Amino acid sequence: MLINYLKLAYKVLLRRKFFTFVSLFGTSVTLMVLVMAAAMLDYSLSPMAPEVRLDRTLLVTYMAMRGDRGEWSGDPGYGFLDRYCRNIPHVERMSVYTGEHATAIFMNGEKVVSQMRRTDADYWSILDFAFVAGQAFGESEVAGGSHVAVISQGTAARLFGDRAPIGRTFETQGQSFTVIGVVRNVPRVREAAYADIWVPFTTLPTDQWRTRLMGDFNAMLLADSPRNFRAIRAEFAARLPHVVMTDPDDYKTMSGAPRTRMEDIAAGVVGLNGDVPRTGMFIGVAVLLAMLFMLLPAINQVNLNISRIFERVSEIGVRKAFGASSGHLVGQFIVENIVLALFGGAIGLVLSLWALRVLNGSGLITNGDLQMNPRIFLYGLGLSMLFGVLSGAYPAWRMSRLHPVDALRGGQR
Amino acid sequence: MSTTSFEAGPAVIDPPRRNGHAAIRLTGVEKIHRTERIETVALNQIHLEVAPREFLSVMGPSGSGKSTLLNVMGLLDRPSKGQVELDGQSVGSLSDRELAMKRNRDIGFVFQTFHLIQDLNVIDNVEIPLLYRRLPAGKRRAMAQEALERVGLTARTTHFPSQLSGGQRQRVAIARAIVGRPSILLADEPTGNLDSQMGDEIVAILEALNQAGSTIVMVTHDQRLASRTARIVRLFDGRQVE
Amino acid sequence: MIRHYLKLVWNRRRANGLILAEILISFLVLCAIFGVVAYYATNWRRPLGFDYHNVWTLEISMPQEAFEDSAARLRGLVVSQRLLATMSALPHVEAAAPAANTPYSGSMSRMGITLRDGGMVQYLWSSTTPAGLDVLKLELVAGRWIQPGDDALSYTPQVITQDFARRLFGRENPIGRTIDSYKDGQIQTSPKSWQERRVVGVIRSYRKAGEFVDMPYAAFQPQSMTDPERSPAPWSYVIRVDPGTPAAFEETLLKAMHAEAPDWTFTLRSLELERQRSIRGRLLPLAFGGTLAAFLILMVGMGLMGVLWQSVTRRTQELGLRRALGATASAVRNQVIGEIVVLTTIALLAGSVLFLQLPLLGVLSFVGVGVFVSAIVVSCLVIIPFVIVCGLYPGWLATQVEPSRALQYE
């Protein structure tokens, strides 16, 4: 029976080439955009090198001091992180590091602008960088404030050309650093890992940042299991009231919480920086946007489907008069629809592969390397099936209610 | 006029003439439908004159070319051979635009299946021929109202065709046919979809219109109705018989 | 005839509902895109107010302790004074001055005040020295610029933009007037008398966020390099160099700065490059959105053509009938196109009403009503011909209907 449906579907679709083309065009372009968006979301949210342990990492990226003077919010300072965030139960490892900042290096009269980040030694155990030469700096270098640096491949090429980078020095911000390791380029979207140059944080020029509650630092808390996130957050919250404020006249309380990467992004998008945002809302907004985007192609598809039905109205009438049930007819129509949707989806996926290649090559997303993985592929397939069913349901329902007599008369009452 | 003998060859029937020209004159008219492999002769050597103010019936079995004859008379179809004249003027050389104008002014159609536009109400349906004459809205309304009065349908001007009975619908169609005051009415099986009582009413209206001066050619298979008309022309296989 | 089309379309509104929805949504999408374009275009035509050629910005990050107490703050100012003197003395440097709100940068220093009429206004607030005028090549249109000694007066002189002057004082002469913030109808007095903001000059404009964004209100006041109570140490400077300055000069400048303040961090940026980045950052999403919109509209157009094609096929009897009643072939074609244009017009009217709710409800209040109107007009001018083109083929198909054949079918 299914084979019959399929053969018939094929013939029917070929008969009206223009309609088939329009349906395929609409479906494939829509799906291409949706799959691309899904790929980008997936790319930003799921654990990928070097942030391979992201699914069991909580990040402290945003804190706020509140008082009569108002609010001072932003990155936490080393003082806060070092004094109040260490040794939380269920945290296997903790790393403290600065944000990345643009810095200029002058080499042979050329200006090279690189993003520099200052980190501790644990940074390299929580994140998995791919070293192509040398190694990371360890506890002793951090403790001693050694002016050593790990640089990315791209930076090595720009600073030193073809020459081996290990052991060479460069100068920036009035400081001199020696290269001890080279890693593969890190995509911009890996927010904790991304940089061009990594140096020990103890190379910061002065010392006052050590006691500051607010500053330029972030922390990664590697949990033993995601199930213990709640316990970690609870412990963090319990410690907050005990923070000794440095300017109690100006700022009385400290607030903030460790967040997952998804919560971080959601906070940025939805703008609820103070408290842990409801990621449900974020997902809800994303789904809503996807539905809105599909609205136009869906209506278009429904329209085309209705036209397709009316074209065959007399055929339907004859069939019904000969005893075909609504179920049979609706079933056939839906099979056609699904065939169309699957083809459109397939074309859309091919287009997505091409678009991803173009996007990766364009350099719009620094060091971007978006991939089509099986999960995205399945999303795409699922979306196109959903699309096919949705855009066929209403017309099919209309069709099943047609009276044979009306159908034979051409659909006019 | 009720013998049914079949004769080949042209038969010329002279109707009584007034004011010089015949309302419709067909001379040697042939209509051949050509598809890839088949040639069908719908009309074969038709010579026919319809006098002004005549009420003529055309009868014959199905496939005899009755509707084609009406189409040719109504300038909807050009004959493959022969000449068609309306009121003494040959239409063979007229352009599509001129033919359309002539149909609009001089000819009214009534069909078996009424062919009313379902999505327009009665008076909007009746006005349609006047739209193509570019008359202002007020004048159109007035003329449509008058046509509906003549067919006795003033009570339902804002109804839609789906809300009317078969007889009422045909009356609307007749009103539409006469709204532009054409001199010729062509009716293709006007009572075919109606029961006998409604059919009688419709033919009565046509008779009244004929009395008032319209030339009417009616295709029908109903002998009883045809015998109410002045003249019957019979067709068989595209030819005139008897 | 149009009324006739309207009747046909209106009576068939249930069947036409989906097409109407499609055209409506496409129209709104176009309005959004053209709205952004119109907004950018309107802003592009306004004077920038400054010259970005051959200008660099120097951003400074001072360690936290520079703000701890007044002694630290004074030290910070002293270092800043030396920095300014050093950079101004370097070869190739024409002029240098401190300034917050450097052009094309993300940083913004703003002040909000409530006016007497209750309106709340935010303006860019920047401290600078007399050299600032030369570096940025601001255009003075009334009064005077900041001059030496301005940082020690009994009031704080302000040089404001023309739009700001108009907003504060209407058509009255702004020179000599004070910028006050009101609360419950009363002027809020500042704790220190020298904090009174008195207008001494007017510049044409200072749209530091660039050509695409509208920032009409800005004020400059004198930077004190000696009194930490009056001004903090500057976070950023603007430096004008002569054209043709070699790239190596950046290194020289940065080395000189590091020499004066080893524990401060310096970042140097070229205004021309930042401007290009900023422009690209704005145009790229627009181009992306526009391409996407074009695809969607194309898809809608093809769908529309398909539906019209279908509709003509379904209505052969009606079209044959109209020919019988005297319609010419072109009349029938015009009907097909006319109906869809009428339907489109209804969709456009509904869409315009919807779109105009945005300014009426005060959403996006920084965008003038003119932008919304331009967006609507341009979108209409695009959609109507587009719809007509989509109707051409079905229109032609309609003329191919043979009346005699169409009327035979039952």
Salient structural properties:
heterotrimer; A: 413 residues; seven-stranded mixed beta sheet; three-stranded antiparallel beta sheet; 13 helices; 48% helix; 18% strand; B: 242 residues; alpha/beta; six-stranded mixed beta sheet; four-stranded antiparallel beta sheet; 31% helix
Walk me through this protein's architecture.
The complex is a heterotrimer of chains A (413), B (242) and C (410). Helix content of chain A is 48%, strand content 18%. Chain A is built from 13 helices and 13 strands. In chain A, helix 11 (326-362) runs antiparallel to helix 12. The longest helix of chain A has 37 residues, at 326-362. Chain A starts with a helix and ends in a 5-residue tail after the last helix. By secondary structure, chain B is α/β, with parallel strands linked by helices. Chain B has seven helices and ten strands. Chain B has helices at 66-73, 96-106, 122-131, 137-150, 166-178, 196-211, 223-226, and strands spanning 24-34, 39-50, 55-59, 81-86, 89-90, 107-110, 184-188, 215-219, 231-236, 239-241. In chain B, the strands form two sheets. Chain B has a six-stranded mixed beta sheet, sandwiched between helices. In chain C, strands 3, 4, 5, 6, 7, 10 and 11 form a seven-stranded mixed beta sheet that branches. In chain C, strands 2-12-1-13 form a four-stranded antiparallel beta sheet.
Poorly predicted runs of chain C: none
Number of strands of chain A: 13
Write down how many β-strands of chain C occur, each being a DSSP E stretch of 2 or more residues.
13
Helix-strand pattern of chain C: HHEHEEEHEEHEEEEEEHEHHHHH
Query: Class by helix and strand content of chain A?
Result: alpha+beta
Describe the secondary structure blueprint for this structure:
The complex is a heterotrimer of chains A (413), B (242) and C (410).
Chain A lengths: L1 H14 L1 H29 L11 E4 L2 E5 L2 E5 L3 H7 L6 E8 L2 E7 L2 E10 L3 H4 L4 E4 L4 H6 L3 E5 H8 L8 E4 L2 E9 L13 E4 L16 E7 L5 H11 L13 E4 L4 H10 L8 H33 L1 H9 L4 H37 L11 H27 L3 H5 L5
Parallel strand pairs in A: 6-11, 8-10
Antiparallel strand pairs in A: 1-12, 2-3, 2-13, 4-12, 5-6, 7-10, 8-11, 9-10
Helix pairs in contact in A: 1-11, 2-9, 2-11, 2-12, 9-12, 11-12
Chain B lengths: L23 E11 L4 E12 L4 E5 L6 H8 L7 E6 L2 E2 L5 H11 E4 L11 H10 L5 H14 L15 H13 L5 E5 L7 H16 L3 E5 L3 H4 L4 E6 L2 E3 L1
Parallel strand pairs in B: 3-8, 3-9, 6-7, 7-8
Antiparallel strand pairs in B: 1-2, 1-4, 4-5, 9-10
Helix pairs in contact in B: 3-4, 3-5, 4-5, 5-6
Chain C lengths: L1 H10 L1 H32 L10 E7 L8 H20 L3 E6 L11 E5 L5 E9 L3 H5 L3 E4 L12 E6 H8 L8 E2 L2 E2 L2 E2 L9 E7 L14 E5 L13 E6 L7 H12 L4 E6 H44 L1 H9 L4 H32 L8 H31 L3 H6 L2
Parallel strand pairs in C: 4-11, 6-10
Antiparallel strand pairs in C: 1-12, 1-13, 2-12, 3-4, 5-10, 6-11, 7-10, 8-9
